[in-house]
Amino acid sequence: MSGKSDKSCSRVKSATPKSRVASTPGGEPACIWARELFDDLQRDLALYMVDGRIRDISLAGAKLLGFDDVEPLLGRYFADFIDRDQLIAVLPILAGKAAPGEELRVRILPEVGQPFLAGITSKPLAQGEGEHIAIRARTVRTDAQKQADALITDDLYRYLFETSQAMISVLDSEGFMLLVNESAWRTLKHDGAASMVGRPFLNLVHPDYQGVMEAGLDIFAAETSPLPLKFMCADGEFIDVEAKFSSLGEGRFMLEALDITERTRAAETLKDREQRLRGVLETVADAIITINERGEVLSFNKAAENTFGYLAREVIGRNVSMLIAEPHAAAHDEYLANYIRTGKKKIIGKTNREEWGVRKDGVKFPLELGVTELRHGSKRFFTGIVRDITERKRWEAEIKRANDELEMRVEERTRELTQEIVERQRAEDKLLLAGEVIESLNEGVAIINPDFRISSVNPAFTIISGYNLDEVIGNYPINHTALTRGGAMFEDMWRGLEARGSWDGEFWNLRKNGDEYAERLSVTAITNVSGEVQQFAAIMSDITKRKQDEERILYQANYDNLTGLPNRSLFLDRLNQALANMHRANKNLGLLFIDLDGFKLVNDTLGHNVGDMLLKEAARRLGTCVRTGDTVARLGGDEFTIIMPNLDDPRNAPLVAQRVLDAMHAVFLLGGHETFVSASIGITIFPDDARDAQELLKNADAAMYRAKENGKANYQFFTADMNEEVKERLVMKNGLSRALENKEFKLLYQPKLDLHTSRVTGAEALMRWQSPELGLVSPVKFIPVLEETGMVVEVGEWAIHTACRQHLEWVKLGLPPIKIAVNLSARQLREPTFVNIVKSALIKTDLPPSALEIEITESMLMSDAPNIVAALKQLHDFGVHISMDDFGTGYSSLSYLKRFPIDTIKIDRSFVSDIDTSPDDAEIIHTIINMGQTLNRKVIAEGVETLEQLNILKQYNCDEIQGYYFSKPLEADDFVAFIRNQEANG
Fold first, then answer.
1. Cα gap 113→100, rounded to integer Å
2. How far apart are CA 13 and CA 21, in angstroms?
3. Is the pLDDT reported for residue 753 higher than 60?
4. How much is the mean pLDDT over the chain?
């Protein structure tokens, strides 16, 4: 070496305690890495790591991690100081497997002080056994803080930034937050700016908006209008904001955001009130019209349409003078402008003012008017409430006529003739007015003579029916079922006319072109003073839309939207009706309860869209399996029922059940995927099993669960003993929901022994449940319930953490290193967070990954192979051992041992129990042992209970054993005593 290199090594040796100077395999101090990492460092962190533990570290690095000296850090895992959420991503660097020079930014969590962002690089070193890694971390957050300080130098700008009510953040070109003001971290419920600076801006954005934001900050900085977004607060709540991005140059951007959550809610409330007000306006009897300062119509309610004959769309936006009779129409705009200019009122604020209006057909009519003014800021609006007083005027004219007649009777007889002429003219005017009213009605009107032939119709009649005037005059009412002699409703109508003089009804009719429409028809008898019928007036309305709405609402309330089958409500209604009919007829009824086996797996792995396709296809197939008169219904999820009334012999129910099994057995082709499911069916019979709908349904459900317990893809009849099982299952399900919280679960540990040395090599953690109601419950009973309810994920996480903590206690007691095995379910392996759960348990207890072994079954590998392979590979690469339990009971395919990262094979106890009496079982075990050892897999035999079994396994050279011959599952303290005894006995 040169002199410079010698000095570098000397300096490192003198600054580093002797106990922590790393040595090369040849025994020389590791001067190379020390020279490369320590000589040029000032404020950065550098360390030397062996198998993940810190062997040496720079003094600057120790201080960054919150220590005054390097000594307390020696032997600790460097991974302990890295944010757990980033631990998986940084593993390649910690293992020295990253590309040369590759840097990864991670969040460092010091023992004391605030977290900071660092860029980490690594380099593998050839130093002997174990993984020797050199790590260098560049504190990028310090650089970011310098940028942040440079952004706000002026005192005025700093004051405006810190006191702004808007949320303000400065972002770098990659979207990381360099600076945030107090309003930002308080609004988003953080403890301070430090918990936000250095994090990606996208972490604040609601997942629904993150795809939009990935377009780039420079694109949004070019927008002039605020962007609506949702931000996530530190407590998980979301707020609505308006965000504005601005470019600050040099690749930096400024974000300004305003919290508009309350404003959004207020707008929604205002919109709701507006809709309710609009509904009120549409139902009042008076016409209500609103105009602006220019006299343009802004609103025109339903009563206004009926009063003036215009539709709202024909009036809105046009000048209101079109509705006013002359001479006021021409002067209206001038009057309105004069009022706005001078404030001088003429009709505003006055009520009961009488004016004349003009209908769409040009007919003038008297009206009563009241006008009010509404100001909204600088804008003015005027609302007129209009009431048609034609009838009132007519009555006033009648009263005046009566008074005039009284006066005329005292006049000379010669005036009476003149009065009669006047009266006749007035009568003709009344008839003319009545005719005009009928002509303008939206309802169809037909006048029918006593021979029941049409004498006249109004225009609306021809529009609704489609028949022209010349096609109906003189004829019987065309296509009016209720009005045709001998029609289905004719007698009912006639009885109403004779009893009350009127009749009304609703029915479906046909237009001339054959289109069907819903009609409401009212018929009234018109009589003379003697009570004799002179004619009939029929009024018809098109109520098609209302009928369609009613039918749609009725359908939605009674049918499943996805499959179109009856839903639970309609199912129970039909079941109750069928039971009543069967009771009267003294006949049987069968009820099938069907649950699809494997549906949840399809739904979870292929997505809800494919799951919906599966449900629709299953519903279609069920419809092909039943008899005419049977009812197929969907109760919810993947549960279906079939009602079979008029069942002559209960033994015929399995015929339908078998057709269902066959139909579900066929492959489902769903969006390019081949999927296989089956059905578990429960059958119950009325009146043998129950006499009401709820009891029948409960019994069928219990029978279905029995079918699942018997291997699925079969049907079972309800039996009386199932009631107790149902009650026990309900008590069990309710108890399990509280068992973890009440600390009713515990783990027992069954030793595993090396067959040749009798040394304890491991323990299998076995779960037990001490229920207050049921006592000690077998795992065979409660584990399936945990699987069914999904609680197995939470309870399984508890088991892993508990087993690791217990293992740590044993290590502290000086027990030799062993592996502790935990059984898993397929449900746990499918959880995206499962791998992190296992790693977290090991890291928290400071155990090496090799201290844990997870046991899986062959059936789990078949259920969801791609996802499970990925999870198992991650755990295996991490160092966790994988064991295949119950080997030999399934397919026992060699491809499993090739495809999956399996370290250990466990031979099922069903083979071991007969090994000394069954040559076939003995040969199977011998073959499995030879096969496993050939593939470099360890083989364990479980369920060893006799000396004969032990001797045969020794003869076959089995690696390890487990069973009651040596020990039953033990409490944690008893397990310690067992190991001590084994060590003492050699």
1. 31
2. 7
3. yes
4. 81
Measure the CA dihedral 433/438/439/444, to 10°: 180
Instruction: Give the residue from 848, 836, 853 showing the smallest Cα distance to 131.
Output: 848
What are the helix (H) ranges across 790-832? 792-812, 826-830
Q: What is the dihedral of CA 68, 72, 74, 78, to 10 degrees?
A: -80
* pLDDT tens-digit map of 156-193: 556 667 667 788 888 888 888 888 888 888 889 898 88
- The CA-based angle 314-319-324, given to 5 degrees, is 95
Residue type, 18: K
DSSP per-residue letters across 246-306 = EEEETTEEEEEEEE-HHHHHHHHHHHHHHHHHHHHHHHSSSEEEEE-TT-BEEEE-HHHHH
Chain centroid to CA 31: 59
Question: For residues 67 and 276, which has the higher predicted lDDT (pLDDT)?
Answer: 67
Kindly report the backbone phi and psi dihedral angles of residue 846, in degrees, each rounded to the nearest multiple of 5, phi listed first: 60, 35
| Nearest CA-CA partner of 647 in 702, 610, 686 | 686
Rounded to an integer, the average pLDDT of 289-298 is 87
The tokens for 783 are 């584990």
In terms of Cβ atoms closer than 10 Å to its own Cβ (0-12, 13-18, 19+), residue 717 is: buried
**pLDDT at residue 24 greater than cutoff 70:** no
Q: Are 927 and 962 in contact (CB under 8 A)?
A: no
Cβ contacts of residue 781 below 8 Å, gap of 6+?
732
pLDDT-based confidence at residue 526 (cuts at 50, 70, 90)? confident
The residue type of 925 is I
Q: Which of 174, 112, 108, 168 lies closest to 142, judged by CA?
A: 108
